[in-house]
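seq:
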Amino acid sequence: RRYLWGDGTLLKEIPENRNCTDLEEHEREDQPELTMHFDIILCADCVVPKLYPIEPLVDALDELSGIDTIAYMSYEKRHYEHFDPAREFRRLAESRNFIVEVISEEQFHPMYYANDIELWKITRCRNHFTGLSEARGRTSKNDL
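struct:
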């Protein structure tokens, strides 16, 4: 199957519980939208604007992330003539209530350090997510 970043196809494939896997395709379409989120998301070499648009990546993180999700992303610094890819990713991430932190070089093992690669920790801004959850009808962390 083909999955596109941020278009919701992946979420439709993730069963909310084991019984959903037994449903026929037309029965699955009648089910309410799934709200399963991942604890950890790993991304590597995904911010490459010459090859991939950045916004669908942020859309996918938004769809798959709950309030306790932590995403780790490696980012290789690359020149792009139209905009700064790191700055654009951060702008889009912040618009979806994410916080993007650069993990300090001191936390890297010397064997794995490269001066042109950053490791980012991406989490939800809890203040914004609380209001967003309530607006969507979820009132507690357990509902996620």
